[in-house]
Design goal:
The structure is a single chain. With 151 residues, the protein is an alpha+beta fold. 32% of the residues lie in helices and 18% in strands. It has helices at 12-25, 66-76, 99-106, 128-131, 138-149; strands spanning 38-43, 49-53, 84-89, 113-117, 123-127. It has a 5-stranded mixed β-sheet, with helices on both faces. A hairpin with a 5-residue loop joins strand 1 and strand 2. The longest helix has 14 residues, at 12-25. The protein is globular, with a radius of gyration of 16 Å. The protein starts with 11 loop residues before the first helix and ends with a helix.
């Protein structure tokens, strides 16, 4: 457990449930090519947890990560604000989301906490802003478009 959690706004029970849901989601992974199972659990602002797993495709570029699976499921259910997401693999080390997933998480807010989870429920908590220090956000897009229009 990361000691920075003493300042977390989530209670221990919610965090534990989130971590366990990410581990359970990994069981549904479709990873016949890489054998690299990933599970994610996304906490909505209402307290509902939406899970996701990685789904590989023989054409690797068409695969989807667990984090994006959970986010797409959540958005399709009407959720758009997420205080936390937990991500786990079968490795006995903390594995962080890929760059595409970091950008995808950041799309829904830069205040999301990312819990990197091991199978024994130990974890490391890190903010998405720390994982993606210079995100491309909607406000950045707007300012870029305004700059282009002024040329």
């Amino acid at each position: 457990m990361d000691k920075s959690d003493s300042m977390s706004s989530l209670d221990k029970s919610t965090i534990t449930n989130l971590l366990m849901c990410s581990i359970k989601a990994k069981e549904h992974s479709h990873s016949p090519y890489s054998k690299f199972r990933v599970g994610a659990a996304l906490l909505t602002e209402t307290g509902k947890i939406i899970d996701g797993c990685n789904v590989e495709n023989a054409s690797y570029g068409l695969s989807i990560c667990a984090e994006r699976t959970a986010l797409v499921k959540a958005v399709s259910m009407g959720f758009k604000k997420f205080p936390a997401i937990a991500v786990t693999t079968d490795l006995n080390q903390f594995v962080s989301p890929c760059g595409a997933c970091r950008q995808f998480i950041a799309e829904f807010g830069l205040d999301c906490d990312v819990y990197l989870v091991k199978s024994d429920l130990s974890y490391k908590k890190i903010g998405i802003s720390e994982l993606l220090p210079l995100p491309f956000t909607s406000s950045k897009l707007e300012s870029n478009l305004q700059a282009l229009n002024s040329i």
